[in-house]
């Protein structure tokens, strides 16, 4: 069984896709040919590391055993340059984690209405980020109970659980403040405290944004105008403490519709409710983009087309406002669908390689859409973290289960090895942007490529074999033609693979019999199976800066080919 293989055996298995000669003919099984060409000498664009953002509804998981472990793994993806966004950081409560809920009790009041600030729980959360080398993308929300303008008998905390209608996450936490001056002061005091605790230089690296999806039916019960006012007062408090704070928003659901139009007009040229001046300081703009998977004919069918259409609509909306067109953009949540804590048949893609191949295919197109619209894409937040002490592979949208990484996290490790310069690369099996944006990848597989050049002449070629339907399909037999490798007669080649047999704890767990209480040896085997292990280096013959490779990528597989002196 896979999980019982030794490290050496797994390394040997990883080399099966690397064929440097005619031995490719020894491969067996169904496949279809794909021609990929890469010109490593021809830069086509900068490739900003937009993937380095993550987030979750549940802030308190960050301080729990598996949450701390996963934060450490995320921080290692790109040291000193990873960000984390979380809901519920200002909620009233004792800090007990729950689905789509969290609390820190930062703000209460005396009987005569004087503020009481308590930073202990929120400090623990941010301390956990910083211990892993992660910076906060600090979401200002939601409304503390003592500041909520909800009617007196309105329940504060929601009682939502998986399976309940999404709208049941309502409560007094999603209301405007009853006193905007106290709201501004809370933001001032929190920012001042963060400067004192973490240092001005560190806090100036953070992103500050107010609330979440204020245009949606669940997260905000005020009017758009009340939100603009709340946003202005929060920014005024933050900037009073830290004039160079990076402030923005509004992290709208989808492209934002008329709400986003109003927000953009307000921050660009409206009357600032807190200062009376024209406009509101805005260092970045944020919206959300989600796909729409379905369950058809007994299997999952992904909705990558919907995801990409929303991304494009958000880019176009921002680009159409002259004052905002060049501002950095963060897609504050970017995922195959909308609810990380909601299991169900349509979300069965999450544990295995469909999620990982979707991630490779979608990020490549998001980069492409940013170039098409000439916008300044700064970040793409993957709304996935972990759910502490839940059943193994429970079907939540997460990056790890019970402390063991899922295949999708290994695609982010591949992203971390991409260089800063995107170079010319084409694939005969890659669906054109307009085709996959309109129709997805349901009629044929999307066998795509993204290639980069990095320091010391390292070339990284990312390849994927993605299909919208979670059904078996043929491998892609890829003929990779490289040129522009420079002088010299040889290069070192290594492979990283995420597919059913590599970097995949889910396959290993099923082979064990799907135990819900793995013993220590089984746990160690699952950790081993989850690891992204490079193939033993091979020598690639180079002639006049050119070389060829024959590779094989299974359906829903992702491969990173690294070529270096």
Automatic annotation (TrEMBL):
Signal peptide: 1-26
The protein's name in its UniProt record: Beta-xylosidase
InterPro entries from the UniProt entry: GH, GH39_as, GH39_cat, Glyco_hydro_39, Glycosyl_Hydrolase_39
Pfam families hit by this protein: Glyco_hydro_39 (PF01229)
Family of the protein in this entry: Belongs to the glycosyl hydrolase 39 family.
Superkingdom classification of source: Bacteria
PROSITE patterns assigned to the protein according to its UniProt record, in alphabetical order: GLYCOSYL_HYDROL_F39
UniProt keywords, alphabetically: Glycosidase, Hydrolase, Signal
Transmembrane segments: none
Metal-binding listed as a keyword: no
Domain Glycosyl hydrolases family 39 N-terminal catalytic: from-to ranges: 35-530
Keyword Signal attached: yes
């Amino acid at each position: 069984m896979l999980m019982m293989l030794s490290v050496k055996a797994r390394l040997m298995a990883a080399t099966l896709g690397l064929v440097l000669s005619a031995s490719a003919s020894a491969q067996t099984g169904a496949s279809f040919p794909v021609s990929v060409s890469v010109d490593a000498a021809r830069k086509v664009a900068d490739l900003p590391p937009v993937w380095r953002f993550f987030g979750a509804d549940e802030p308190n998981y960050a301080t729990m055993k598996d949450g701390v472990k996963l934060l450490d793994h995320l921080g290692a993806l790109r040291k000193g340059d990873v960000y984390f966004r979380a809901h519920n950081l200002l909620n009233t409560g004792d800090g007990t984690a729950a689905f789509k809920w969290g609390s820190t009790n930062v703000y209460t009041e005396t009987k005569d209405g004087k503020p009481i600030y308590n930073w202990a729980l929120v400090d623990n959360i941010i301390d956990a980020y910083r211990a892993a080398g992660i910076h906060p993308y600090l979401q200002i929300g939601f409304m503390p109970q003592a500041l909520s303008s909800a009617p007196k008998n309105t329940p504060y905390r929601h009682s939502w659980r998986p399976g309940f209608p999404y709208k049941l996450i309502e409560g007094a936490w999603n209301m405007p403040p009853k006193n905007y001056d106290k709201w501004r002061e809370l933001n001032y005091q929190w920012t001042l405290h963060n400067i004192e605790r973490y240092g001005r230089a560190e806090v100036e690296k953070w992103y500050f944004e107010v609330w979440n999806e204020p245009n949606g039916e669940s997260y905000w019960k005020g009017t758009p105008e009340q939100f603009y006012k709340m946003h202005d007062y929060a920014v005024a408090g933050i900037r009073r403490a830290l004039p160079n704070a990076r402030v923005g928003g509004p992290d709208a659901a989808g492209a934002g519709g008329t709400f986003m139009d109003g927000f953009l007009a307000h921050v660009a040229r409206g009357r600032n409710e807190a200062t009376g001046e024209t406009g509101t300081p805005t260092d970045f703009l944020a919206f959300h983009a989600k796909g729409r998977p379905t369950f058809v004919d007994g299997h999952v069918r992904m909705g990558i087309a919907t995801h990409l259409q929303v991304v494009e609509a958000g880019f176009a909306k921002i680009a159409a406002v002259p004052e905002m067109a060049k501002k950095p953009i963060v897609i504050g949540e970017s995922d195959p669908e909308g609810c990380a804590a909601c299991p169900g048949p349509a979300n069965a893609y999450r544990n295995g390689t469909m999620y990982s191949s979707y991630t490779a295919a979608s990020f490549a197109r998001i980069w492409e859409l940013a170039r098409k619209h000439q916008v300044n894409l700064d970040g793409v937040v993957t709304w996935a973290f972990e759910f502490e002490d839940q059943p193994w592979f429970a079907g939540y949208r997460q990056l790890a289960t019970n402390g063991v990484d899922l295949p999708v996290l290994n695609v982010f490790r591949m992203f971390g090895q991409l260089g800063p310069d995107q170079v010319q690369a084409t694939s005969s099996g890659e669906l054109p942007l307009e085709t996959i944006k309109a129709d997805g990848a349901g009629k044929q597989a999307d066998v795509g490529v993204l290639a980069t050049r990095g320091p010391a002449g390292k070339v990284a070629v990312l390849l994927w074999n993605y299909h919208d339907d979670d059904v078996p399909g043929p491998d892609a037999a890829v003929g990779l033609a490289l040129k522009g490798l420079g002088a010299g007669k040889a290069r070192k080649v290594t492979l990283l693979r995420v597919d059913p047999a590599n970097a995949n704890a889910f396959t290993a767990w099923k082979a064990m019999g799907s135990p819900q209480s793995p013993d220590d040896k089984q746990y160690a085997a699952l950790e081993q199976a989850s690891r992204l292990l490079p193939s033993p280096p091979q020598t690639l013959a180079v002639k006049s800066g050119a070389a060829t490779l024959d590779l094989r990528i299974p359906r829903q597989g992702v491969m990173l080919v690294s070529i270096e002196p």
